Amino acid sequence: MSYEVTDKDIQNYSRDGAVVIRELFSAEEVECLVEGIEANISAPSWRSKVASSSDDPGWFMEDFCTWQDNPTYRRFIEESNLAAVAAQLMQSREVRLFHDHMLVKEPGTMQRTPWHQDQPYYNIDGFQNVSFWIPVDPVQREWTLEFVAGSHRKGWLMPRTFMDEEAKWFPEGSMNEVPDIEADRRKFQILGWALEPGDAVAFHMLTLHAAAGVQGNERRRVFSVRLIGDDVVHSPRLWETSPEFPGLKDELPAGASMDHPLFPPLLSRSR
Questions:
Q1: Confidence band for 58, pLDDT divided at 50, 70 and 90
Q2: Does any domain span residue 268?
Q3: Which residue, of 9, 24, 168, 248, has the greatest Cβ tally within 10 A?
Q4: In what order do the strands lie in the sheet with 145-148?
């Protein structure tokens, strides 16, 4: 069944680079994701990583690009309202999958996800894109994903590794740095929402975002789906991207549309 976002949602996404969409997914779809996430945790891919330190009392695990091996992920991506909503927010005729991303912070995880943009880590160029951040556990405002409103329209900022702040992707000094937002949060319009299972946050790949750790006995299991639209093209890098797509630069030239089995079309609308 198609899902129609409101004109206000589309305007907010264009202006702010992030919007919350309540009750986008049914209880059955959430349970599908729970099954997929737990299977993913039990059998992680070669791309998986632990993104918290060994002395962290919790545990932060990520995994990427597992939809081809995880049937519940694949079913959710192909059968839910994701593509229909993405087309409306991106104002795009075509919607393709870029990649999936699982993020799990277990109870007591202290590790923050620092302020960053996503697109500088990727191998794509283009502005028509959207990421969905979909929790399967209730998320309190204190440790939800936060965004700097409008930051997606202010250019690319230096991507760094999360734990040691290394500039692995672009040469030092070649890009502006992410501002120290935590030093004075009042200088920025920061958006964030408490979320329930079934809700989703949609955000642009250039929107600055961050998240705290989790406290107490709360788990924070999230499935994220990155989708791309009409103007997105392949942009091979001289370095390893995150996620990496081995061999893709030999199969898809620079500037080409993302017409490749790794990035299947999910929706195509007539003009």
A1: very high
A2: no
A3: 24
A4: 113-116, 209-211, 145-148, 190-192
